[in-house]
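Researcher: Structure prediction, please.
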Amino acid sequence: MSNNHRTIGNVVTGIWIRCLSIVAQFTFPAQVTTTIHRMRGVHIGRGSKITRTVIIEDSRPDLITIGKNVWVTAGCQILCHQRDLNYYEIGKPVMDCPLKYLPVTIKDGAHIGIGSIIMPGVTVGEGAVIGAGSVVTKDIPSYCVAVGSPAKPIKFF
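Model: Predicted structure follows.
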């Protein structure tokens, strides 16, 4: 396949992913929204539910893995890209720094509370509960409650 055909294919795929992302914002029940995110390339286990106002990475949804029986509640964001600040210099616009992509894994039975943000490169452990409005910047262990910005475990089971 020529580079030109690959480029056209990438553009079409990107448009498809973004269109489905917009559609997902207006769907219900959660099972339908979850199915649309699967169609976008997000790896989602059985029994998991994603509500309609969840924003999941547009550029590389294939880097996101959500286990079985996970609940991602309203207003959450799951991201797998960010600016690589290793290239940042005084006087240089941050937007000139390249993007880096890191996978996100939310393991079986986790619960992501309303309005939480899951940052790139993070693993949320099995059965973990992320409190509402938390910003998860580092791995969260299994079977704990983590809250805050940045999110920190406050209780273990």
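Model: The mean pLDDT is 93.
Researcher: Thanks, that helps.
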